[in-house]
Structure formats: structure tokens, C-alpha cells
Amino acid sequence: MQGQHHSAAPVIEVRDLHKSFGSVEVLKGIDLSARPGEVISLIGGSGSGKSTTLRCLNLLETPTSTGLLKLLGEEVHLKTDRRGVGHVSNKKQLRRLRSRLGMVFQSFNLWPHMTLEQNVMEAQVQVLGRTKTQARDNAHQLLERVGLTERLSMFPSQLSGGQQQRGAIARALAVDPEVMLFDEPTSALDPELVGEVLNVMKNLAEEGRTMIIVTHEMKFAAEVADKVVFLNQGRVEEEGTPEEIFQAPKSERLQQFIRSVG
């Protein structure tokens, strides 16, 4: 798996990414890049900045400052308003980029008043302008891929957490995103349901999708990733292949972290 990604230009590239909430600096200069088809696992203790990094990548959070923020080949410029709050300069670009970055959250975020089928159809009609028929056909294919064909007319409240999260993955895939971002997608699940979600993600990785995954499932991180990035206190402490990170960690902090989760 490794090695195939190095020639292509990165689809995501950030340099010196900073993010503060009030006086608290959560990210203290993150460098991260992802090439087409690369699967990156972001690991680290709670409060290390993993989720904030991911939320800055799809601009749910506006970085406080960056040396470079390039998403899907487009450079993103930030401007600060009178209150000192950062915004993306170009609103149109923001909408366009967001629709090409699929995001899956800890909580399943399906619309409760819509069936699973409608959940997966909605963005296709609204964002991509597909007809209902096209959207429905595509929804059925995606729900089949995540193993939910039998459940498509059910509402989220009638589904298990694992089914809801697989539905949320299908919904994120429905707009044909170029990069999939996962923010601890199994942390809200009962242990016995974790595997079914990770299997779906494993299949996506094998299809050659570009994925950035914040996870505390170390075995999974090691198994699917081309690159593992270990964050500590808002900085990238170490990065490398799964073998380098899990079998030959260099930094003291990473060694401690691996012992603590082992």
C-alpha cells in the first residue's frame, strides 16, 4: 500500500496551522498533508488536538492562522473581522470545498424526521442537483455497500448505533467527496457494534479513497493507515508508517501513549 501516493500532489496540505479558543491555544502549528488515496490515522490522548485539526480541515472551525491551507488544490485565505474572529475570505469557495469533503462525526447526526433512504438522498438533491430518481438509485447502492438495504425505510430512532453510523457514512459518500474525514466514528458506540463500522471503513480504504481518521482504535489505525500521525498538546510529535509508529516509536511521549492504550 505504501509508496503509491508519493508522486501525486497532496489533496490536503496544511502548514503551521494554529487554532485558539479564547486565550487557549489548542493547535500550536500543525503540518499535515494527504495525497490521493492515502489513509491517515490521527492518534493522541484526549486534548491533543486531533478533532480540532480535523474540524479545521473541513472548515467547521476556522483556523486562527496558517502558513498554508490548501484543500483539493485550492488555496484557502483567511481574514479577521473587527472582533478578531477569523473567517474564510471566499464564502463560495467554502461551500464548494465543504461539499467535496465528506465528514463523519462521533454522534451519528442523521436527520431524525427522515428515513435512512431520505437521509442519503437529501444532499444529492440539494447540493448536487440530482433528480429524485438518480438520488434514490444512488442511495440504494450506497446503503447496500454499508449493509443496510433491509433498513432503508426506517427512521434513525429504529436503528442501532452501528446502523446509524453506517447510514451516516453512506450519507457522507452520497455527494462523491474527494476526501473522507472521520472524527472518532466509533467512540459513541457500544463495543459490540464497533466492528461493523470499522469494516465499512476498511472497505473504503481498500477502494483507494483518501481518508483522514481520528480514532482511538489502535489496531484499526495500524491496519488501515498508510501514515499514522501522533499529536501531543497541539503539535505533531511523530509521524510515520504504522510499523514505525507502533513498533519503533522514537519519542518518549509516543512510547508512553502506546503503553497506555496497549
Explain this structure.
Helix content is 36%, strand content 24%. It is α/β, with parallel strands linked by helices. The protein has a 6-stranded mixed sheet with strand order 8-9-10-3-11-12, with helices on both faces. Strands 2-1-4-5 form a 4-stranded antiparallel sheet, covered by helices on one side. α3 (116-126) crosses α4 and α4 (132-145) packs across α5 (161-173).
Question: What topology emerges from the helices and strands here?
Answer:
Blueprint: E1 12-21, E2 24-34, E3 39-43, H1 50-57, E4 68-71, E5 74-75, E6 78-80, E7 86-88, H2 91-100, E8 101-104, H3 116-126, H4 132-145, H5 161-173, E9 179-183, H6 191-206, E10 210-214, H7 218-224, E11 227-232, E12 235-240, H8 242-247, H9 252-261
Parallel strand pairs: 3-10, 3-11, 8-9, 9-10
Antiparallel strand pairs: 1-2, 1-4, 4-5, 6-7, 11-12
Helix pairs in contact: 3-4, 3-5, 4-5, 5-6
In short:
The chain has 262 residues and is an alpha/beta fold. 36% of the residues lie in helices and 24% in strands.
Order of helix and strand elements from N to C terminus: EEEHEEEEHEHHHEHEHEEHH
Mean pLDDT: 92
- How many strands appear in the DSSP assignment? 12
Low-confidence stretches: none
Keywords:
262 residues; alpha/beta; six-stranded mixed beta sheet; four-stranded antiparallel beta sheet; 24% strand; globular
